[in-house]
Amino acid sequence: RGFTSLSETLAPQELVKILNRYLTIMSDIILEENGTLDKYIGDAIMCFWGAPQPLQNHAEYACRAALRQIEALKKLNLELPEGKKISIGIGLNSGIMTAGNVGSQGFMNYTIMGDNVNLGSRLEGTNKAYGTSIIISESTYEAVKGKFIARELDNIRVKGKTLPIKIYELLDFKREELK
Questions:
Q1: Model pTM score
Q2: What is the mean pLDDT of residues 118-124?
């Protein structure tokens, strides 16, 4: 959030320095929580769980990573000067997705595709409207309920969907999860 404004106020070298520091911290958390890094899209990170190797409790790993990222970002922002602080939104969705190599004959990228991927991306952007940091879909909520603290936000229609979906704000770990 606000990456364009931040990039307009910094020299390219300074922007890259801050961005690389941020991406390193966030990527390390994803990898520590058994995630697969897909790609960087400017200041955004696309990642997933459960491929190329199947992963039990993939939604729990994703939620744990998201919460850890928000905490790590708070610490990073304490070190950054005013006007250079970073704000992010995270969208998590669980469901069937296709994983594999996509691209041209000369260049391939291992990635995921499908309607459930698109929904995760839409949820990330929805954080702006709700003033939240992490929004999870109902399918992710159902996979992790009882292990994390979440609150129901709304039933929304996202672009490309005809039926509304229930969304939740992921807030914290349950106490026993911290052990």
A1: 0.92
A2: 95
